[in-house]
Write a structure and sequence with these properties.
about 400 residues; alpha+beta; nine-stranded mixed sheet; six-stranded antiparallel β-barrel; 6 helices; about 15% helix; about 30% strand; disordered N terminus
Length: about 400
């Protein structure tokens, strides 16, 4: 009843576009099936000794598309990392705002590589060539403070390097590693990295109901009605699995990074969760919001069906443009312990992976899955202890 009343109130404020109908009707539909979050004990990933590293050069601009010689079948056929492999891959670098760079080794406890049964389904992805919008453009521009400042859209932020990110703590932002590091070195702007929070301009309280799913919108541009408030990043953590000095062709499995802000924001953040198998997701759907480059100043939301998956990657067909990479991919399922529906970040949108095969380019939409080990690592980065990170 509360959901229905809330939807009616929103309907009086603005006409119900497709997005509005989807957000209001979906909870009632899902009540019949009630897919649930399954809590599981996760390993412990603890930092050990740290050492200084040579200062980065910050020479290259951030690349907003990912290239890799490894397609889904390549990822599936790769040998399973050993315990010692995982320690090497989950070691991490920390870039400090004063330019210092440190490298930290990690210890892993409660992890048995042989018991890792993360699924990799044999369903094959459809190859799509040199396109980023597949058929009808299924993205929704979110505008007006009635939506922009409300959860879950309010957790999406913009990075000064051109990517997107997601609030996962009072001071923490989850994004893609390639937004700050090109695999060899840190990119331009990474040392003075800023995180932008989209806000309507002071005094402009109108609801932009005519801007729902179109690149062109009303008589005023969106950039005239919104602005970004920026907060500097204090630290940036990047796993060594992404950095080519230690990585291999499947380095994109570790395309994630965590930013710690210099001061706390005042928005609600989204909880992390271990990625369930795609078949357990409601309607096999995933969601994410980001700042696509072809819609400047607009927050863009999309949802789509999850497709093929490997233990570390999720392939899907969500429409997106450069700039959306780094967005947190989330799902909404029932939390039996808290007795409520809850959204959790289960991955990071890496972007459009281009794979060269026999002289032809193949394109895939890829998200890095939140595995138990990645969850344990990122959770520790956020909370600073492992006690609060034992269940994902």
């Amino acid at each position: 009843m509360a959901t229905t009343l809330s939807c009616r109130r929103e309907a009086r404020r603005s006409p119900p576009p497709l997005l509005f109908l989807f957000l209001c009707i979906l909870p009632a539909v899902l009540c019949f099936s009630r897919p649930e979050w399954t809590l599981q004990r996760v390993p412990v990933v603890l930092p050990q000794q740290s050492r200084g590293r040579p200062a980065p050069h910050f020479l290259s601009a951030a690349r907003l598309e990912v290239t890799s010689p490894c397609d889904p079948e390549c990822h599936k056929s790769a040998p399973r990392p050993s315990y010692w492999d995982m320690r090497r891959l989950l070691a991490y670098e920390t870039l400090h705002s004063d330019g210092r760079l440190t490298e930290t080794a990690v210890g892993i406890y409660g992890y048995d590589p042989d018991s890792d049964t993360s699924p990799a389904y044999p369903e094959r992805s459809r190859v799509r060539r040199k396109r980023q919008i597949f058929g009808h453009d299924g993205r929704f521009s979110i505008a007006g403070q009635d939506f922009v400042l409300k959860y879950p859209f309010s957790v999406a932020v913009k990075l000064s390097t051109g990517c997107s990110g997601t609030l996962v703590g009072d001071r923490h932002v989850l994004t893609a590693a390639h937004c700050v590091h090109d695999g060899k070195n840190y990119v331009k702007g990474a040392q003075r990295l800023r995180v932008g929070f989209l806000r309507p301009k002071q005094g402009d309280r109108r609801t932009l109901s005519n801007l729902t799913n179109h690149v062109e919108g009303g008589p005023r541009s969106v950039s005239d009605q919104v602005k970004f408030q920026w907060i500097r990043a204090k630290r940036t953590h990047v796993p060594k699995g992404w950095i080519r000095g230690d990585a291999n062709d499947i380095g994109m499995d570790y395309d994630y990074a965590l930013l710690e802000l210099k001061k706390a924001h005042k928005r609600r953040h989204m909880r992390l969760g271990v990625s369930p198998p795609a078949q357990r997701l409601p309607g096999r759907r995933v969601h994410f919001s980001g700042f696509d480059n072809d819609r400047p100043g607009r927050l863009v939301y999309r949802f789509c069906r999850a497709g093929e998956e490997t233990p570390d990657l999720l392939y899907q067909q969500c429409d997106a443009q450069p700039g959306a990479s780094g967005s947190g991919v989330y799902a909404r399922m029932w939390d039996g312990r808290r007795r409520r529906w809850q959204r959790k970040v289960i991955g990071v949108f890496s972007g459009h992976q281009w794979v060269e095969r026999q002289g032809a380019s193949q394109e895939y939409n890829v998200a890095v899955r939140m595995t138990p080990l990645k969850y344990a690592q990122i959770c520790y980065w956020i909370r600073g202890n492992f006690v609060d990170c034992r269940e994902g």
